[in-house]
Amino acid sequence: FYSRDNEGSWFRSLFVHKVDPRKDAHSTLLSKKETSNLYKIQFHNVKPECLDAYNSLTEAVLPKLHLDEDYPCSLVGNWNTWYGEQDQAVHLWRFSGGYPALMDCMNKLKTNKEYLEFRKERSQMLLSRRNQMLLEFSFWNEPQPRAGPNIYELRTYKLKPGTMIEWGNNWARAIKYRQENQEAVGGFFSQIGELYVVHHLWAYKDLQSREETRNAAWRKRGWDENVYYT
């Protein structure tokens, strides 16, 4: 995770109220009412021989945007993948103020010469890239910087159309079983890009801690039922 006070390594390793069904949009029912945060998650598939150069380049440029108060965005986290997709970088941004903040940031970047040069140089290092705009589930904590070192696990689910509310109902109950070790970082659902996609982000001290934490959840009555229905 990246904070304005962070020092040291910039990249990291990535490894309740009930929501009742209604006729409102998912974004109205499932997202937090007290905030207007919008998130963007970026997946960059990097040429294997360019990964170190990519990390150095992004570390030199992206934190400046995070620290610049003229840009209504903050860098929540940056990761390189351990398992799953290899030679991949993942970035998670928060836009405080929703879509107006996003558009303000995008318009300013169009005239930011350093950022335009950064994009040009970065393009030579990538095989492909994709992104999604996300909202956070109301029953998850807002992602915050935490003491490390940690490994992070991003679990992605592609839902059947029409089942997002049911998913929210089940996880609003299930999340209480995953709080003891503060492993729950954030929960999001897609708004723009590929739809009906959910991302759950978890943090663990190491792989052994991950195994112990997950096994402890299965010993709690009710966790298995909630997982079964999702």
Automatic annotation (TrEMBL):
UniProt-listed GO biological process terms: mitophagy; sensory perception of pain
Record's subcellular location: Mitochondrion matrix
NIPSNAP domain ranges (all copies): 152-229
Annotated Gene Ontology cellular component terms: mitochondrial matrix
Membrane-crossing residue ranges in chain numbering: none
InterPro entries found in the cross-reference section: Dimeric_a/b-barrel, NIPSNAP, NipSnap_domain
Signal peptide: none
Keywords: Autophagy, Mitochondrion, Transit peptide
Keyword Mitochondrion: yes
Family statement: Belongs to the NipSnap family.
Protein name: NIPSNAP domain-containing protein
Organism of provenance: Ailuropoda melanoleuca
